[in-house]
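Hi! If you just cloned this repository, the fastest way to understand the data is to look at a raw example. We've pasted two of them here, unedited. The first protein comes first, obviously.
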Amino acid sequence: MTSTPVTKNLELSSTGSDEDETCRTFIFRNEDHTLGNALRYIIMRNPDVQFCGYSVPHPSENKINCRIQTFGVPATEVLKKGLKDLNKVCSHVLQTFESSMRDYRSRNSPGAAMDTTDQG
């Protein structure tokens, strides 16, 4: 099995059946279960996907192998869509977190108005 570098951190693993674009294994370098599990979840929600799984070849290796099989769509396109969708989810989480932190800080800053209503 050989691999073709796509970027510095992503390779396309080559097997004997390179004609079938619906079935590919991608190697992500410098990644672990954090990306693997999130990306697998997002990709599996795509109705064009038959199978998506990932593995960490060895605990001392800082890489994951991600396998995608589709019902006809090229696996590389499914990976691109999955990465874009995951990026959108992460952006939404970050925006929600930052907004909540701003709200919390504005309510709890030393200059914020104190609640002076009598509860007794």
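Ok, and the second one:
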Amino acid sequence: MPNSSSSGYTYNSSGTNSQGNHYCSRDYGNGSNSYHYSNSNGSYYYSNPNGSTYYNSAATAERNSLGLAY
């Protein structure tokens, strides 16, 4: 996994499983880490180095792909 020290982080790990779900973990060097999951159904989850999180459920991802309003 390449380091991105010019971006302020290094990769801890990343990969994709047989179902096409992807994960990535980053180390920001000051005790702050982040990770995210991106799933083949369009859902995702992010945990950021500042402690914030955000996600998109599979149902929301499907509505977005169909152009439907919430």
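That's it. A detail worth noticing about the second one: The helical segments are 58-66.
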